[in-house]
Design a protein that fits this description.
Cobalt-precorrin-4 Transmethylase, domain 1; 17 strands; about 35% helix; about 20% strand
Length: about 475
């Protein structure tokens, strides 16, 4: 079997790039923290320090309503007067909302004299450290800093990470805390210990814990300690039409936990870049008219890797269950006793509809939609394709792999009485940088594959729902001609 490999992104391993700030995690449990100022901004910092276990004292001439409520909630000591240098004695950390530059300077000098790191809110020149955006899945905590360059960007990054991390992650992390010694004692072999922690990570990301998550983890230990060998796992993952932002969160998690990724030729590099760096990437693509891996060889490779205990992601363009031969692969894996599951993806038809802003089942035009293949095992239009049932009143048809057979399909439809003027669209490389769109009547569909340049896959849609898009396309074309003429 001929299997190609794309090299993972090369990364410099010998040196660490320049860091504008050193990210550290400061233990404040049962230590004194002093907050100077009674403003709303200072109140937020006081609450944050208390959440980290600090004993908080607030010193301010004016204590605002927000600060007073926070101080009561965290049982902070409140001193209502102007701050003095002696207020900072013994503090492990100082945070201040200074009234002016001179006040900021004085607080910084007093804090340093007391041996405490200081942060003066919104005055970076007087700060020993900065507060970044925080993702809290305690005991898992993630800090994000842009070195003050773009705080809004830091917040946007935090939201992205929040979406990726399930809310229950901290519960699993807490459960694992008390099991490290048990895992080390019962799973002496380093390979089995690694297998446990990998399964633990998969569980933490994919399954909401029950009331006793420790019991679930002990069950994994029991199975691994008694197993003669570790059987791997295969996940069929839909990579979508190409744009990495179309991936589901579950697909990203699968990519980030895989040992080996077997990917189709149509899977984009930006999708592969979301996989963990250590994962081995192997291209097993099948493209019409080109040298390709046989399906039997791909099935055998998945079984082989599964029996080696690998976590395998079979990464398929679009959705695995739509013309992706997933049924053959699932059957082969289950027969071999390899665990397999499926993560669906956005299929090309729905991506095309979104790009064209066309509802495939617009209630005024279509009550049914068909996804069909325009490519048989022999390379032509499938003989058994019921073309007369695909389009017509209230129907929309989407034809996958139909670039070479578009003319034959149009002729067969027209021969069976379908209106030659029925709107049709052909899209090459949908949702990719080189995307091209052809729009016209069914009778001209044979021209589509010639007018769309390049070698990306072509997707065809036919039906009344496309009339709006066809009219818009004619309007754009007329505007372009008028612009050229003027």
């Amino acid at each position: 079997m001929s299997v190609q490999s794309r090299k993972p992104c090369e990364r410099e391993a010998a040196r660490i790039g320049t860091l504008p700030k050193l990210p550290v995690f400061f233990d404040l449990r049962d230590k004194d923290a002093v907050v100077v100022g009674g403003t709303e901004a200072a109140a937020w910092k006081a609450e944050l320090l208390a959440a980290a276990g600090a004993r908080v004292s607030v010193v301010a001439e004016i204590v605002g309503t927000e600060m007073r409520g926070v101080a009561e909630a965290i049982t902070a000591r409140v001193v209502e007067r102007a701050w003095r240098p002696e207020d900072l004695a013994g503090a492990a950390i100082v945070v201040a909302d200074a009234t002016d530059k001179e006040d900021a300077h004085a607080i910084r000098d007093a804090a340093r004299s007391a041996g405490a790191p200081v942060n003066v809110i919104d005055r970076p020149a007087f700060c020993d450290f900065q507060f970044g955006s925080i993702v809290n899945r305690a005991p898992v905590v993630i800090g994000i800093s842009t070195d003050g360059a773009a705080p809004i960007l830091g917040q946007a990054i935090r939201r992205r990470i929040e979406m990726l991390l399930p809310r229950w992650l901290g519960i699993w992390a807490d459960a694992a805390k008390g099991l490290r010694s048990t895992v080390a004692a019962r799973l002496g072999d380093s390979g089995r210990r690694r297998a446990f922690w990998e399964r633990f990570a998969d569980l933490a990301f994919s399954v909401e814990p029950h009331t006793a998550p420790e019991r679930d983890l002990i069950d994994i230990v029991d199975r691994l300690s008694s197993a003669t060998s570790d059987t791997g796992h295969v996940t069929l993952v839909g990579a979508g039409p190409g744009d990495a932002e179309y991936l589901t969160l579950k697909a990203v998690r699968a990519l980030q936990s895989a040992d080996v990724i077997l990917f189709d030729d149509l899977v984009s590099d930006e999708v592969l870049e979301l996989a963990r760096r250590e994962a081995k990437r192997m291209m097993v693509g099948k493209r019409g008219g080109r040298d390709s891996c046989r399906q039997e060889d791909i099935n055998a490779l998945m079984v082989k890797l599964g029996r080696q205990g690998k976590r395998v992601v079979r990464l398929k363009s679009g959705d695995p269950m739509i013309f992706g031969r997933a049924g053959e692969e699932i059957a082969e894996l289950e027969e071999a006793g390899i665990c397999v599951d499926v993560v669906p993806g956005i299929t090309a038809a729905t991506a095309m509809a979104a790009r064209l802003k066309v509802s495939l089942t617009h209630r005024d035009h279509a009550q049914a939609v068909s996804f069909v293949t325009g490519h048989s095992r022999k390379g032509g239009l499938p003989d058994a394709l019921p073309v007369e049932d695909l389009v017509g009143a209230g129907k929309t048809a989407v034809i996958y792999m139909g670039g070479r057979t578009a003319g034959e399909l149009a002729d067969r439809l027209i021969e069976r009485g379908i209106e030659p003027a029925l709107p049709a669209v052909a899209v090459r490389s949908v949702a990719r940088p080189g995307e091209q769109v052809w729009s016209g009547p069914l009778s001209d569909l044979k021209d589509a594959s010639r007018s769309l340049l390049g070698d990306g896959p072509i997707l065809i849609a036919i039906g009344d729902v496309l009339r709006t898009h066809a009219a818009a396309a004619r309007h754009i074309a007329a505007g372009e001609k008028q612009s050229l003429a003027s």
